[in-house]
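Sample entry (106 residues):
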Amino acid sequence: MLLLALVTLTASAERVNLQAGKIGQPGGFGGIPKSPVEIPIVDLDDHTLYFTTSCVGDTLQLVQNGVVVYSTVIASDEVELPATLEGEFEIQIIHDNWLFYGDIEL
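Predicted structure, serialized as tokens:
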């Protein structure tokens, strides 16, 4: 079931381009899913992530230079990232055995 949340975005919010991969596949990501996966819709405005597609209960990680520098369980449709985080990061959203990932700059 797909749950959509209503969020208010400012004009400066940018859509985060996410890719999808399966966790635990032999040889890494890949394989053909039996049904299409719904990639979350996420926008970034300064240090706030807005989830149009609900990801409540999923794990959010920010990775920099191969190291997880921030991790949290998503509790609402808005996540305020620490203001101390600056630079380029890989954003990862882990849902069951799916990994949604992309690049963001804070």
